[in-house]
Amino acid sequence: MPGQSPELHNRLHALRTEAGLTQAQLAEMVGVSRKSVNKVENGIFIPSSVLALKLARALRCPMDQLFWLPAAAGADADTDDT
Fold first, then answer.
1. For 8, what's the count of Cα atoms within 13 Å in the CB-facing half-sphere?
2. Is the Cβ–Cβ distance between 67 and 15 less than 8 Å?
3. Are 52 and 38 in contact (CB under 8 A)?
4. pLDDT band at residue 76, thresholds of 50, 70 and 90?
5. Vertex 79, ends 76 and 82: CA angle to 5°?
6. Residue 72 — very low, low, confident or very high, per pLDDT cuts 50/70/90?
7. Taken in order 23, 29, 12, 44, is the CA torsion positive or negative?
8. Cα distance between residue 30 and residue 26, in whole Å
9. Rounded-to-integer distance, Cα 62 and Cα 19, Å
10. Contact status, residue 59 vs residue 66, Cβ threshold 8 Å
11. Do 39 and 32 meet the contact criterion of CB atoms below 8 Å apart?
12. What pLDDT was estimated at residue 71?
């Protein structure tokens, strides 16, 4: 995804538009600026845990459908090494 942070990927833009919300409307729902929502959507800003949870709640989706970590090269995401 162009512009996405290499540490955290998201589907914020897609889920927000599916919900029929503008950036400003979503921002108001979660208590941040429209610019903050834009920066998260574009991978410029990695949200705090609290903001990520608020965004997921506002969009009525599980957080792991909204945000995810990319798989490391050669790593299996389903492997539990503990």
1. 19
2. no
3. no
4. low
5. 140
6. confident
7. positive
8. 6
9. 14
10. yes
11. no
12. 84
Q: At what angle do helices 23-30 and 34-41 cross, to 10 degrees?
A: 110
pTM over 0.85: no
Cα(79)–Cα(82) distance, integer angstroms: 9
Radius of gyration over every alpha carbon of the chain, rounded to an integer in angstroms? 13
In this predicted structure, the answer to whether residue 8 has a pLDDT above a threshold of 80 is yes
Q: Which of 28, 82, 20, 73 is nearest to 55 (CA)?
A: 28
List the structure tokens of 42: 């574009």
- Length of the chain in terms of residues written: 82
Q: How many CB atoms lie within 10 A of CB 57?
A: 13
